[in-house]
Amino acid sequence: xxxxxxxxxxxxxxxxxxxxxxxxxxxxxxxxxxxxxxxxxxxxxxxxxxxxxxxxxxxxxxxxxxxxxxxxxxxxxxxxxxxxxxxxxxxxxxxxxxxxxxxxxxxxxxxxxxxxxxxxxxxxxxxxxxxxxxxxxx
Length: 138
Hints:
Blueprint: E1 15-17, E2 27-37, E3 44-54, E4 58-60, H1 62-70, H2 79-94, E5 98-108, E6 111-120
Antiparallel strand pairs: 1-4, 2-3, 3-5, 5-6
């Protein structure tokens, strides 16, 4: 008999070497199925997480990120706390030039919550935005 669930949630995130550390470039990871529990009621909270970062020497390995995010499914935590905890874990693993995590939580009792947490490495500043002729801003 084979195990129906060969993978399990995990409390850590793996990384790999940035293939182009000499260049600033953005990585965006959308996680539309994040769930945790309300610490007051025990009811499920649903959110979409958007991770945006400029890597330094390390990049996030996606399968381990998926398993890490899964580990919150049965945990009671406030939106503000979980967003900042996830950002802190990812910053610790990758030490990026810049990282932003946005948690957009679904309606609960008529209230929507969005939490945006950011990290910026000391001394790092983004390059100025470039507008090309004919850009419409979209």
